[in-house]
Amino acid sequence: MIIDSRAYARAGLLGNPSDGYFGKTLSLSIKNFGAHILLYQSPELVIEQQEADLNTFRNIYQLRDTVSLIGYNGGIPIIKAAIKKFCDHCDASGIRLSNKNFTIRYHSSIPRQVGLAGSSAIIIATLKALMQFYDIEIPKHILANIALRAETEEMGINAGLQDRVIQSYEGCVHMDFNKAQMDEHGYGVYTPLDPNLLPKLYMAYKTNLSKVSGKVLNEIRSKYDKGDEHTISTLTTIANLADQGAEAIRAGNHELLGQLINANFDNRCKIMSISDSNMELVNTARNCGASASFTGSGGAIIGIYQDDEMLKRLVYSLKKINARVIKPYII
């Protein structure tokens, strides 16, 4: 039997990046892009190499460009971390895994390092495949925690729960990570919203703006850990936008939702540096009349457009700065 498992890209609509600081977020699962895992039983445990894992290059320039785009590691370390944490969870839960091995193969269509949660998608898809292979049920909120620990504890990546939660639940989810809840339970309060209530959304991304999200978020983490009042206050403001956004979606108030999306980015600018290229991406979209904010750590934006004419302006204007526009398919 061949197990086919998938997890999809994530777009943070509101509240990002407060999820790592006992905040709140509103996130979407984007089916346009995804991570794909194939797993089947085999005599030995094998993780197949893909293009991102190869160490043979045409020349020194390809090596440089590859490292700039995907870093020094491909997908194999991510899958190893996911398998280890799956095994750790089973041990801690008293679950005895059957004595059988597997071969695992991965593929991802998620643009790398532009704030669409490509790494966590590979981890979630791997965990789902392992659950099916070993016939084990793991609740979605626990699955998200295992995925987060794979990145933070095994790979040393600065990350929060938001990406892993939306990739476990899918659809549109409001997440509340308040300290009392997290201290008592170790996970947040997750409330799905009907994606059919969402307005017309667009996404745009530039692959040449790729960056490692953990490094970007280190700037905020350093200020937060030092007790910087401005940073803490701004993160609280950003978190509250997620609550307001959930109410706006339920009420069908798309104009307010667009204002909140803009406010999320504007507040983020107060506590972290934004590159000129990323500012160009946001400002170009806003000049077309659309709202715009980062989907994650930069390189991709999401917002509301009013009609097909505005969408055409977005496609035309953003293409001139080498950005691709898509209509997100939300599952």
Automatic annotation (TrEMBL):
Keywords: ATP-binding, Kinase, Nucleotide-binding, Transferase. Residues 78-170 form the GHMP kinase N-terminal domain. It comes from the Bacteria. The keyword Transferase applies. Residues 247-317 form the GHMP kinase C-terminal domain. GO terms for molecular function: ATP binding; kinase activity. It holds the Pfam family GHMP_kinases_N. This is GHMP kinase. It comes from Mucilaginibacter galii.
